[in-house]
Amino acid sequence: MKLRFRYYELHLQHTFTISRSSSNIRPSVIVEIEHDGIIGYGESAPSERYGEDKSTVTEFLKRIDLSQFSDPFELEDILCYIGNLSDGNNSAKAGIDIALHDWIGKKLNLPVWKFLGFNKSKMPSTSYTIGIDSIAMIEQKVKEAESFPILKVKVGVHDDIEIIKSIRNLTDKIIRVDANEGWKSKEEALEKILRLEEQGIELIEQPMPADDLEGTAWLRERVHIPLIADESFRYSKNLRNLHGVFDGINIKLMKCSGMREAVRAIHAAGTLNMKIMIGCMIESSVGISAAAQLSALADYVDLDGNLLIANDPFSGINVLNGKLILSDLPGLGVHSK
Ligand SMILES: [Mg+2]
Q1: How far is the CA of 230 from the centre of ligand 1 (A)?
Q2: Which end of the chain is more exposed for a tag (fewer CB within 10 A), N or C?
Q3: Is the CB of residue 38 less than 8 Å from the CB of residue 103?
């Protein structure tokens, strides 16, 4: 098995602003695993919020030696070896996991969703993300998102209520709100959520700093819409602490280390009666297609990272009126442009 990878800069169509940061370019490392004349594609989209960047990903990938394995079907052993190389580095690990799944699908001549046994027609519509911006720009973005039935709006700044009111004046679509840990006290979060509830918001993602589970539990008892953990949730092992605090979790391949761990987390959350959102970082169509393969198991889908960039190096995952259309091609169904 040969492992190759290359750095690729994803250019955003609009400056992307959330409560803690703003960016025009996001890093991506495209991973290739070649064996038996077949290339499986993967992607690592690191986030500094989780201690990763371009160099941590490439340094981690350089340490991987796949020569001890006979083929990508040894998925569990390979991922176990990679998991034991070091803690963290989950987007780097996801790049390998995704490439192995793509390779296996191509070898079997089956789409990944099919060999995993999922029904691609059962995928919920994806939301479309509106980053923090001036009210005028937000109104323009809402118009650009016309074909999407669900909006996910980033807040966590001083004029959160005005942002949501201005969007609500334009549309009666489902609105989900993501505070990205931006509300620093439980009292501020409570006041804002109660006012946002009046605007018909469906759910709130990560209202409080990730470690403030006590504050979030206090909030949970006082608000009336679901609270979804994003920054508070990484992988199945830290799920237990979130039970009773949040109503659901946002699973991202780049946080949890890939598709295999994402499926594990989905089943674990199901046993706790928690809702599942499948989300993403800013990623190319490789990462988005990988997450989309699992989306039939989700209550909420937030997979628009590839739609927010201007230079996607891959194609193969399409969206029609907010529904992701999975390909019937083998593997992830993506190809290099
Ligand atoms: Mg989020």
Answers
A1: 5
A2: C
A3: yes
Distance 51 CA to ligand 1 centre (A): 16
Does an H or E element contain 184, and which?
none
Cα distance between residue 231 and residue 206, in whole Å: 7
CB 101 within 8 A of CB 123: no
Instruction: Tell me the CA–centroid distance for residue 273 and ligand 1, in Å.
Output: 20
* Average pLDDT for runs of 10 along the chain of length 337: 97 90 95 98 97 98 97 98 97 98 98 96 93 92 94 93 96 97 95 97 97 98 98 95 97 98 97 97 97 97 94 94 94 95
What is the Å distance from ligand 1's center to 232 Cα? 10
For residues 67 and 319, what is the distance between their CA atoms, to the nearest angstrom?
Answer: 38
pTM > 0.85: yes
| Span from the CA of 280 to the centroid of ligand 1 (angstroms) | 9
Query: Which run of H or E residues covers position 1?
Result: none
